[in-house]
Amino acid sequence: MEKSNIIGLLPNDLLTFLEMMGEPSYRSKQITHWLYQQNATTWDEMKNLPLGFRQVLSQRFDIGQIKIETKMVSSDQSMKYLLRLADGNGIEIVVIPHRKRITICLSTQVGCPVGCSFCATGQSGFSRNLTYQEIVESAWKTQIESNSVIKNIVFMGMGEPLLNYEQLSKAIQVFNHSDGFNIGSRNMTVSTIGIPDKIIKLAQEWPQVNLAVSLHAPKNELRKQLIPINDVYPISQLMKTIEQYIALTHRRVTIEYSLWTDINDQREYAFQLASLLRGLLVHVNLIPGNPIAECHFVPSSPARVMTFARILEDNKINVTIREPRGQDIGAACGELYGLHHKRGVVE
Q: Which is the catalytic residue, given 105, 116, 333, 335?
């Protein structure tokens, strides 16, 4: 019999199996405690489970099915992992250390169907959605390997999270659950190019999870060149959705804007962006673009980034200039391929 993966399961998912085995229901919480709080990787570690039951578990379940193929370490101590899935597909995720916390940037798809012109993932094509167990295991496996306790999650890796909404939502449940990773909803962020119906669904089902919207242009003509899906979801529809999201959740929305020289960093676009966002509960993250081989765009200079930011501030728009992390190992925004690249330090 083919084994199932136990990583990602919660106590309620194990009750039918325990009943069939004649085991008490409290075993479910013992198992998940070992997996998610103690980071157990073998059944033998679970000493408060009867030996015979552990043997049954080992025959029925794998404790994880993903392999870490490559780890790369940036000069800023960010870490990028290439993970090999059970079907042979590869995904990349990033662990980002801050002063007092560790953030993990998770992927939700193998590749991405959106096809943003400046994004390596989008230019590499799309294979499939990840299952919620694969999303959860990628965090679980990396947390163990990096010997860190991850309490902040951003769904900003490979793929468009809201095009895999059901699996994303199940993964959030496992991360948030007291018998799972026990990570607070406000310590999780979903980054999206803007899928209106799913943004509303996120607001209704996970109102405390943070929302970041990748805008990158204040006008449809320009945004369509950068993000082809803007044809389907134009800016006017997206802005109405953001207003609805704020009304439902009373939460601030982060607007992400990558800056490229003479593409979208001109002063006129800063004024247009300020006009578009005026009066909304938003915060703009300005991100100097990260170059990739498939795109000829040149990242904006610090001076142009500062000018853009100043125009927004002068128009009473809250703004932060984000420092790129992991750029030297291809781990910054828009640089993930899911393939091994010979850059940085490989351990």
A: 333
| 253 touches 281 (CB < 8 A) | yes
Residue 274 · residue 319 · CB < 8 Å: no
* Placement of tokens 């992400």 in the chain: 256
Contact 188, 209 (CB under 8 A): yes
Choose among 272, 145, 182, 179: nearest CA to 221. 272
The 10s digit of each residue's pLDDT in 209-235 is: 999 999 999 999 999 999 999 999 999
CA 56 from chain centre, in angstroms, equals 35
137 membership: H or E segment, kind and range: helix 132-145
Q: What single-letter amino acid sits at 136?
A: V
Q: In angstroms, rounded to a whole number, what is the distance separating the alpha carbons of residues 135 and 167?
A: 8
Are 105 and 161 a contacting pair, CB within 8 Å? no
Question: What amino acid occupies position 166?
Answer: E
Is residue 116 part of the annotated active site? The answer reads: no
Confidence of residue 2 (pLDDT cuts 50, 70, 90): confident
Among residues 152, 153, 176, 172, the alpha carbon closest in space to that of 164 is found at 172
Answer yes or no: 333 catalytic.
yes
Catalytic residue among 92, 134, 137, 256: 92
What pLDDT, on the 0 to 100 scale, is given for residue 260?
A: 93
Taking Cα atoms as reference points, which of 274, 106, 297 lies closest to residue 190?
Answer: 106
pTM beyond cutoff 0.90 = yes
Decide if 259 contacts 305 (C-beta within 8 A): yes
Residue 149, token pair as written in the block: 């306790």
Query: What phi, psi does 154 have (nearest 5°)?
Result: -120, 125
